[in-house]
C-alpha cells in the first residue's frame, strides 16, 4: 500500500512532464492523459482478453450485474460500480493540467486531503467491500494526521501573485482525491468478483473512453500540441497506473478504504521527498521531513485502530 502512494506520485510527475513536452493548455493535458490511460488499456487488453482465467473473471462480473446473490433482491454489483475508472480519468487529467502550474507537492497536498476526508465518508456509508465502518475518534485522528503531514510539507507553496489560479487548480486536485476514495471502494467490490486485473482493465476501459471525450472537447479551448517527445520514460504513466490500481483493488478488500488511503498518502509523501532529494534544483526543507514523519504516525494510528476493531 505504501508502493501505491509512491507510484501515484511518480505518475503525477511523469504525466505532467509529458503534458509539458506535448504543448500547452487543456489540449496538451488531455492528450497526455489519453496517452497514459490508452497505453495501459492496450497492455491490459492483451493480458486479460488472451487468458482464459481473466476472461472467466469478466464473465463473473457480468453475471454479478445480472443475477441476484444468495437470494438477495439486488445484484452483487450495480452498474455504477463499473464507473470507478471515471475517478482515475479525472485524476490523470488533473495531473497533466495542474502539476505543471502548481507543482507536484501542492498537487499532492490537495489530492491527499480530499482522499483522506472522503475515505472516512466512504467507509462510514459502506461503499467499500468491507461494508459499513463507523467513523471512530482514532480513525478521524489518523486522517487528520495525514492531512497535517501533507499540509506541513507544502506550507507556503501558494504563489500570492497567482493565488486565484493556484487555488482553482488545487481544488481540481482536491476533487480528484475525493473521487479516488470512491474509486477504490468500487474497485474493491469488482475485484472480489472478477479479480484485480479484470478490475484494472475495466478502470482503463472506462477512463480511456472518458478521456477521449475530454480530448475532443479540448479542441474548443485555447492550446496547442507541438509533437511527441522521443524519450521512453514519458510514456510509462499507464504502466504505473496499472500497478497502483491493481494493488489497491486487492488491498482495499483487506484493510478498507481509509487504511489504504492513509498508507498510500505516506507513500506519496516519502516518494515526493525522494524526488526532491534527487532533483538538484530543489532544496529539501525540515518541514518536508516533518511532513513525512507525521504521515507515518497517521498510518500507525490507523493500523492500530484496525487491529482493535
From TrEMBL:
GO cellular component entries: plasma membrane
For whether the record's keyword set contains Membrane, the answer is: yes
> Keyword annotations for this protein?
Membrane, Transmembrane, Transmembrane helix
Pfam families referenced in this protein's UniProt entry, alphabetically: DMT_YdcZ
Classification via InterPro entries: YdcZ (IPR006750)
Q: Does the keyword Metal-binding apply?
A: no
Q: Which domain of life is it from?
A: Bacteria
Membrane-spanning segments: 29-50, 82-111, 163-182, 203-220, 232-252, 284-304
* Protein name in UniProt: Uncharacterized protein
Amino acid at each position: 500500500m505504501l508502493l501505491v502512494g509512491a507510484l501515484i506520485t511518480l505518475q503525477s510527475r511523469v504525466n505532467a512532464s509529458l503534458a509539458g513536452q506535448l504543448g500547452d493548455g487543456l489540449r496538451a493535458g488531455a492528450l497526455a492523459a489519453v496517452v497514459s490511460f490508452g497505453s495501459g488499456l492496450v497492455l491490459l487488453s492483451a493480458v486479460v482478453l488472451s487468458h482464459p482465467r481473466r476472461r472467466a473473471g469478466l464473465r463473473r462480473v457480468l453475471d454479478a450485474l445480472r443475477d441476484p446473490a444468495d437470494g438477495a433482491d439486488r445484484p452483487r454489483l450495480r452498474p455504477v460500480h463499473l464507473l470507478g475508472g471515471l475517478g482515475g480519468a479525472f485524476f490523470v487529467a488533473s495531473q497533466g493540467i495542474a502539476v505543471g502550474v502548481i507543482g507536484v507537492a501542492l498537487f499532492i497536498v490537495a489530492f491527499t486531503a480530499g482522499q483522506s476526508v472522503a475515505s472516512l465518508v466512504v467507509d462510514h456509508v459502506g461503499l467499500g467491500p468491507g461494508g459499513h465502518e463507523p467513523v471512530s475518534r482514532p480513525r478521524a485522528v489518523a486522517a487528520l494526521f495525514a492531512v497535517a503531514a501533507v499540509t506541513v510539507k507544502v506550507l507556503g507553496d501558494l504563489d500570492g501573485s497567482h493565488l486565484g489560479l493556484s487555488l482553482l487548480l488545487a481544488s481540481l486536485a482536491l476533487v480528484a482525491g475525493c473521487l479516488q476514495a470512491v474509486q477504490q471502494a468500487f474497485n474493491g467490490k469488482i475485484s472480489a468478483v472478477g479479480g484485480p486485473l479484470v478490475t484494472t482493465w475495466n478502470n482503463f476501459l472506462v477512463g480511456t473512453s472518458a478521456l477521449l471525450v475530454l480530448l475532443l472537447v479540448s479542441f474548443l479551448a485555447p492550446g496547442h500540441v507541438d509533437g511527441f517527445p522521443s524519450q521512453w520514460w514519458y510514456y510509462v504513466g499507464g504502466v504505473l497506473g496499472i500497478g497502483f490500481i491493481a494493488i489497491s483493488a486487492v488491498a482495499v478488500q483487506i484493510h478498507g478504504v481509509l487504511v489504504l488511503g492513509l498508507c498510500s498518502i505516506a507513500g506519496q509523501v516519502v516518494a515526493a521527498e525522494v524526488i526532491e532529494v534527487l532533483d538538484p534544483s530543489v532544496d529539501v526543507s525540515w518541514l518536508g521531513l516533518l511532513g513525512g514523519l507525521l504521515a507515518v504516525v497517521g498510518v500507525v494510528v490507523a493500523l492500530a485502530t484496525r487491529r482493535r476493531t
